[in-house]
Fold:
Amino acid sequence: MSARDLSRRTAGLAGALLLSGSILVPVHAAQAAVHALVIGINDYVGPPKLRGAVNDAEDVSAVLRQNGVDVTVLTDRQATRENVFAKWQSMVKESGPGDFLIFHFAGHGIQEESTRGEAGAQESFLLADYDDVENPSDRLIDQELGLWLSLAADAGRTVLFVGDACHSGSPTRSIFGETLPTRFYVPRTQPERPRPLVQASAQVVDAARQSIFSVGATLANRTIPEIMIDNAPRGALSYAVARAYEGSADLDGDGVVSASEFEAFVAQTVRSLAASKQTPQFEIPDASFPILKLDRQIEVVPAAPQGAIQVHIRAGADEQFRASIAAIQNVSLTGDESGAQLVFDPSTGTLANNVRDVVARDLDLEGLKTAIEADRALKELQRLGLEGTLPIAFSPDDGVQPEGTKIGFTVPSVGGSYLTVFDLTATGSVHFLWPVSQDDADPLPKDQAFSLDTMVTPPFGADNLVVLAMDAPPAELRAELKKLDGTRNPAALIASLKAAVADRPYRIALQAFFTRPK
Structure:
């Protein structure tokens, strides 16, 4: 897409106070406590083994414990159906009225046929000993999960369920090789329905629904891969939720993370990490509900700098080519394709990102070097977004958009801010988009959304639209963007951006999008 073809409409936000520490307590109940049951399963009996679910459980539980939460962690073979239910039942009984209970699951999911006249397909979470034939009962069907959660809600507890699994096998875009584990499993046979461990009436579940908040990893018909984050396999949802618990989801800086802020932060962070390939799903019965309260006495701790980018080069490149890439600072070649952040096929010059989208084609050595720098810049944008998230909407969908398609971007919560908008392509091209003329309002009028509309035109490939909102105009950044416009210098872009936001409130929206010829 030609960045210069973007047509602008007005839009604007106030910067967020950045805090990294939090106390996970419902603020409406001063004596309420928080309890969490965290499940992470890599080592399955029947389905393919995962690599990142235990990492997810360890990260989430560590953040919760640092904030004084009573956490029970079950990983791998500990996480059987009976054991998980026993721990959940015990947590419900030992907690008190008004307490906040978290149930976090990272592992495989399946979709199965409905039985007994139930409407729609049933979604299940697979537990450690599950096997289609030998032990099909070791799973948690969504309707039974509702009964488990209602045990807590009916007893006066508020519940947050996070399910980092998927229940379908349809990707939004083509995958560059089948090297990434996904959290979706297709059973060899239709498993028998397990014996219920708890009975409850539909009326109890319906009455309790207002006290149950839930987050699913993606749309019901989409696959999610495990991706490399901080050089470790992870689920994007669990990573985002852990950062929310650290306090990054306090978007308005008032010291309380409401359910609506939690949803906005987690949704945008997951989409940023997964290049818009994954869209979390939320059930939020009360948008104003306070998920957590921040401890303003905790000092802000900046996010850790990036480690080396793991690059896998497929067969066909000579040793000089490989050595040239290995010589790049903070780049490490790896023989493990599934553990790489970037995968390059020298036979076609094709580069794939961490979710295995094809982001560039026909790259030579110098083109690959620049694309690696562009990926490094993108990772830095994602990191900055954790400290100041700004949600963005994209239309028509997250597929690869063919030439001639009308596409649009909207940032709803930016009225009153100074916006700086640019595009960074996967091949390293920088395009300055806003403000570039006297007609571009600066700051933007209050109570207005910011929108960009365009038609897909050449060049095609992978782009990343960035909207930076600040409470004062970043003059030096804008001057640098004018110099960089149309060039391929992602390192200079990021250096200028980091200088602009240092010690100043900001928020960033990041939207990846993909285009192709007809």
Notes: The radius of gyration is 23 Å.
